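SEQUENCE WITH STRUCTURE:
===
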Amino acid sequence: MSQGEFSGTMPVSDRQRFDEASLGRWLHAQLPRFAGRARIEQFRGGQSNPTFLLTAEDGAQYVLRKKPAGTLLPSAHAVDREFRVISALHGSDVPVARPLCLCTDESVIGTMFYVMEFAAGRNFWDATLPRMKAPERAALYDEMNRVIVALHQLDYVAAGLADYGRPGNYFARQIARWSGQYRASETERIEAMEKLLTWLPANIPAGDETALVHGDYRLDNLIFDSRTPRMLAVVDWELSTLGHPLADFSYHVMLWRTPAGEAGGLQGLDLLPLGIPSEGEYVAAYCARTGRRAIDPQVWEFCMAYNLFRIACIRQGIMKRVLEGTAASRHAREAGSRARATAELAWHQVEEHLGA
């Protein structure tokens, strides 16, 4: 897939249409400076919560993010949690779009939604950052590293997020949660997944840490300034919670384990002339910034297997929504169809690196 198929906006798809007049009335009541009726476009990217660009008559732009229609899995698509966390983070060292208003009244457009300011900047889908020079790539990757460190070092208690999740036993709780989500969306038997469902909870590494984690910190969920490597906003906080920072960071670093080309990763590329750090260099920068000693390889590889398992569960959920006709993205079927391959890759990771 090309970047153009995922980036930018398109007309609102038929299955995502809602009462625009009702939305307009609500926005006028909530945002006194909202001018006139908005032109509404749908963002192409994303598989979970449908997201829309609103352009008012005075040119001001806003972003609306809503739950999808239809029957949803328990605890999924929690846009109210997204609104809470970006409200807590706004003004901190973790850049987010300015939150504006949350609507819990489903009668307005059919589902809960929130509105935030539009962060006008650059959004990338290709990790090789074509048309950039090596120093520009290096600076952008360093900024990604800086921001995820800022997130993990944030005092979440002082930010009012002490109850945003349950500290401790993160892997056990997440594996149980995703196992339940997987069973609720299962459409076929996948042997590799059955093995993971048994092996992962029985082999959780000792020790625990708690930080605010994003849950989906990857390049296409980051908005950068149009001229500099400064990050303007981290978006898509649906999976955020209190959790283990290495689970969050290793998910981000899976970019280096993902094949280049159509898969959009860095594996197999000669990174030095591109100005992109190696996985080891990127991890070392994170450790230096956080004051952490080198990460135990067994713990690191467990995190990688866990993240692949979680992605397989997410993709299975997408496939379930495809079959039910509620998937938000027109690329949903392709994404959902990769659940089996992702589960098999996760089990291969366990066999290769963790001696299962």
About this structure: Residues 190 and 324 are 20 Å apart (CA to CA).
